[in-house]
Structures are given as structure tokens and as C-alpha cells.
Amino acid sequence: MLPKWLKRSSLALSLLLGAATWFVLTGVWLRAIKGGFIDTTVGALYEPAYNAGRYVGALIFPDYAVRGTTGWYLIPLFGAAGEFVLLTAIWYFCIRLTRVFQPQEPEPLPGVDKQSLKIPLRRADSFDGAHEPDYTPTWRSSYLPGLDSLLGTIDYERFKLRTWREFRDHTGRWPVLSICFHYATLIGTVVGVIVFLWIRDKQQWDNARSFAIGIPLGIFDLIVVVFGNNLVRRLDWRLFGCATRQSGSQRG
Length: 252
Prior knowledge:
Blueprint: H1 4-8, H2 10-31, H3 37-60, H4 70-100, H5 119-122, H6 145-171, H7 176-203, H8 207-251
């Protein structure tokens, strides 16, 4: 059994799991056949982190290339620390993702009856779980196009997070489909723009052809995002919200 403080702290648990994973994975890697599947896979995972750790060490010890100096001996340790940080980050992401999607049960406050905690579920009629609220920008323009785009994106992501938390507070579950759809379309849009620019440059399209193809694709992407977002929100409400309301009414 793990201590309570270790169960509650995602960082402490990820550090422990990261250290254990590093020792086990490194031991297996050192005993693996050179050029085999394990050697290639673990090497590909470790290489970027090891190089990043060596780069940090080189900044601290510029003379690391001179044999016998302090940096000569410590640079490999910086590389190993980079591998450990990578594994810890992976564990932390997995732990946080698991805990985020776990159902949230309200904890009783001192002097509060558990039955009274069911009242918000019964009075959730004012909450429109099948539709997201309209987005209203809260940031102020800086009159710089690049900075305005960044601030607008951050403000919109904060709005989405508030909306998802409101859904969780009323149902006890996160709108998993809405979250996945939002980031899938975001990544898909970015990748689509990169691919479109790559094809345009490779095929040497002129401005007229670029606009003739790019504008319909942009409109199609906007339609998919708007209608898809409304659809997955209704599916989230049908899967989680309605079931929560029914269970709350049965308990009542």
C-alpha cells in the first residue's frame, strides 16, 4: 500500500515510477541484442532526452570535451538525468490524464449531511448540458496581430476548460468526447494547413489557384468543427449527463 501523500501527489508518484522505469528499462536495454527490436526502440526513446541532458551539461561545463575535467565525468550523468526526466514526464502525463477522467464525487463538509450533496444534481435543470455556452472574448486587444492571435487562442482554450469543468461539476464526469474532438480537430487543422502549404509550394500554385482551393477547404473545416462540436456535446450529455440525472432521481 502506498502512503496517502504519495497517492495524492501526481508529481511524487511520477518521480517514483520514473526512477523505477529507468532502472528496469536501462537494465533491459544494456542486455538487449545490438540492433535488435528492444535496442532500437529504447535507443530511439532515450536519444533525444540523452542529447538534451548533455546539452544542458555542456552549458554548465564548457570544457567537457577535455579528458579528465569535471565536465568529462558529469556529462553522461546529465544525459541519464535527461532520460529520467523524460520517463517522469510520461508517467506524470498518464497519471494526470487518468485522474482527470475519473468521476468526481463531492466530499462531505463538516456538519453537512451526505443527502444534501445530491441537491445540485436535482437542481441542475438550469444547466444546459446538451449545448455549450456562447464564447465571449475576455482579453483586451494589444494592437499587435501576432500577439492578439496568441491571446485569443489562450482565452478560447480557457473558455473551453471552464465549460468542461462546469459539465463535470454537474455530472461528475468530464465530457470526454468533446475534449477529444476539440483537440483532434485542432491538430487536424494545423496538420492540414501545413500539408496544404507544402503541396502549394511543391506544385507551384499561383495565388488564384491557392485561394480557389484553400477557401472551400477552410469553409469545410469550419463546418465540421461547428457542427461536430455540437454533436459530440449532445453525445456527452446523453452518455454521462442523462445517466447521472437518472441515478440522482432514483436515489431521491
